[in-house]
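In this supplementary section we document a worked example of the pipeline. Step one takes a protein sequence of length 308 as its only input; no multiple sequence alignment statistics are reported here. Step two produces a three-dimensional model, which step three serialises into structure tokens for compact storage. The input and output of this example are shown verbatim.
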Amino acid sequence: MSCLECAESQLAEIELLTSMFPSREELEISDQLALAELRVYVEGSASMETPPSSSRPQFLIKQQLDHASTEKTEFVLACAYPSEYPRVLPEITVRIFCLCIRCAGVSRAQQTELHTDLNAYLVENGQGEVCVLSAVDWVKDHLQVFINKSSSAPTASKQESASPGPQEGFSRLWIYSHHIYNKTKRKNILEWSKELGLSGFSMPGKPGIVCVEGHHSACEEFWSRVKGLTWKKIMIRHREDISLDLTGEHSGAGESIDSLRKFTGFEEAMFDPHGNRGNHMDLGQLYQFLNEKGCSDIFQIYFGIEGR
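The serialised model returned by step three reads:
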């Protein structure tokens, strides 16, 4: 499938979605400029001879479930097209909103599981074909299962709390990805790290690197969310775990966590971007950055060579 054929498929799917979800309450185009550039390219304008690369069509599909057991439950499917879609899968995230007190909602763990199962379904059934409608239908058909799982979770939590829990700990995760280009993923990484009280940094481009540090449970939650997204390749390349004894003065727990941090806050770090698309970083500058933070040994773990 050529670049033009990919663009034609993208535009055709957006037009189909627009006809099926005609109101803004159902379908919201997040980037009208990207859609306009896509249309100009497909229609063969002389001013756009190559596929647009600076921006990509993004949109939200908002649906309310009509099942009696999920009354007043809505979900929002956020989608961004990679330029190679449908040769590759789209970037899709789902958010669930329960609008009445009778609805148990979906926990973070169940939402992560939903994303994992949805991605597995699309890998098996959507590769090479436009698949956003299939994703919407899959969520409609399976969301109730995840709501039911979440509604039974509090009972299990109470049972677990009756027995002594594990010691709280500090963790630092060094995550490696084949690449991090997608703006939505980059935004999620920044927002989730802030929400979970994690410090560290992310380096977009090829390869992509993320370091998060803080409470063990928060790091695990961050990793659970991130790995649930669609990636060509992502892994924890190295991790550091330190147990903290909280049987003494609980007031010192936060201070102990903070004393182990090597980073202040969380930032997206850029190191002299270069290359045709500006997606490669200066690894020498990355090494200096890690060295200043007392993490120079991580460079060899990531790349197999000593930094300079």
